[in-house]
Amino acid sequence: MYLTQLSFGTLLVATFVAGTKDPSAANAKVHTVVVGSTNSSLLVFTPQEVAANPGDTVQFQFSMRNHTVTQSSAEAPCMPIANAIHSGFVPVGANQTMVTTFDVTINDTKPIYMYCAQGKHCQEGMVMTINAGNSTQNVGTYKAAAKVATANVPAQRVNGGKLGQVAANDATTVPLKRL
Which of 67, 71, 81, 97 sits in a 20 to 30 Å window from 115, CA-based? Predict the structure, then answer.
């Protein structure tokens, strides 16, 4: 009898805990950023600036060519920081039915600086920021610093996010020309 009551009580507690939701999770948003473009000639993140709250997810959706999403500092735009967010190289060919994604959960409101570590993509302006809009080192100053960077270095391993896929029909439309 005691075991049955304990089990029932445990079940009630487990049900109560499982039914409790984190209020911040209910308000979390997904911000989609397209990496590259469908015509493969544009080296862009769209949008180039994202304002995200703690708990939000930034979902990077990769389009044509071979790109990365790699974290740097504002002071060294094309060099990964220690423990950098890094998607690894994600090659994408034409007419794909699935789009590779890299989901990054935002933990705070500190600025995050991202670049593509492929070739000279960073120096050619393929950079973006998260939560740097009100900073003196916003996407404009970050892009200007990237333009004169002497090297473009990838991080060593995939880190800080989760690779996945979405159906191409469900992916965000990517730009064909610079906006």
Answer: 97
Distances (CA, A) of 150 to 111, 122, 147: 23, 10, 9
Residue 163 forms part of a structural domain:
yes
Please count the structural domains in the chain.
1
Please check whether residue 129 is in contact with residue 55, taking contact to mean a CB–CB distance below 8 angstroms: no
Could you tell me the CATH number of the domain that includes residue 155? 2.60.40.420
Counted residue by residue, the chain has a size of: 179
Task: List the chain pLDDT tens, one digit each, 179 residues.
Answer: 444 444 434 333 333 334 444 555 678 999 999 999 877 678 999 999 999 999 999 999 998 889 999 999 999 999 999 999 999 999 988 788 899 999 999 999 999 999 999 999 999 999 999 999 888 889 999 999 999 999 999 999 999 999 999 998 888 865 444 44
Domain contains 3: no
